[in-house]
Amino acid sequence: MAQPSLLERLGILADAAKYDASCASSGSIKRSSAGGKGMGSTDKGMGICHAYTPDGRCISLLKILLTNHCIFDCHYCINRKSSNVRRARFTPQEVADLTLNFYRRNYIEGLFLSSGIIKSASHTMEQLIETACILREEHDFRGYIHLKTIPEAEPDLVARAGLFADRVSINVELPTDAGLTRLAPDKSARQIEGAMGNLGHAIAEAKDAKKRFRHAPRFAPAGQSTQMIVGADGASDTDIVAKASVLYGSYDLRRVYYSAFSPIPDASAVLPLKRPPLIREHRLYQSDWLMRFYGFKPQEVMQAAEADGNLPLDIDPKLAWALKFRDYFPVDVNRATREQLLRVPGLGVRAVNQIIAARRHRTLRLDDVAKLTVSVKRIRPFICALDWRPTMLTDRADLRTLLAPKQTQLELFG
Ligand code: SF4
Question: HSE on the CB side for 276, CA within 13 Å?
């Protein structure tokens, strides 16, 4: 059979990569300037996605698979060997050429490269490394490279990936070992976490060496990340939060990404027919922020969950926690510690920093706090200020109803 053209293969392999959320740019409505109306588009070119660098810049990446052939049979994956999907494959040289061509045209600032497993995990890993090696060593490519690494490959190869990539990632895939065994029978949780551990050590050693020797080689300077699929197995949000906290604690991960399971064409019968609500993924990202930036312990985030172990969908986990632990409030904006202020629903890190800076010069009134927040109505039950005490408001039985965002009717044909 004739090999599809380069453009056809780009279409197939960019589409196959879209299920990886590690650098997704979701949440935008579709707008296009096709037909000469307006300028710009939220629909990027084939295979181009946005990602955030460690210093907070938003960059465009060419996001593709080297191949969507795979010898594994993970039930949730459109590229599994039993799937009836159209297959394609690039050579490392072709991916390097595409990256350079896109880069020269100013379409992208880097590459996100993953792959199905061909022949063996080590063979595939060699091909991924070769692509990055061509870019870095033959073309002195200094753009961003994110390489998905294959935990089943030889440890030396996994470690070598970090010499060329800015970021490396290994997907843990599912929050529980039982879920992984059921839905990804060729994968092993021990192997995945073993590979993450090796990468974690190598990243820490390289950082240490860089402090002591100026010319020590770079090794994945943007660290490692992982992704968990939400809603493909029966794992609850508390299972997911527990797993994420173990991963952050054990492997010094930069990010855990949560990807709401989306039903795939020709899906395996063991998968649910419906995707979980996207808001569930959003609540998990919020809980992740609580642990990383707001000083919440994993157990505290889990306390925000409902009886079924899932975070409420109608309110964010910080508000859910505050409503359950009302005796913690109100906190005095003029005296409370930073940690106490960060617990107030509606007060973000920036607002807390501004409150702390402003109260050095004067005693704050409710109006002063209102200027620093989006909605003072939301925070009033949880704070005291010079001219404000919530009195009975904090303990009102209907406080949740008062503070929950109003439900809006979705557009039927939106
Ligand atoms: S190994 Fe990766 S590409 Fe292959 S079936 Fe599993 S998730 Fe899909």
Answer: 23
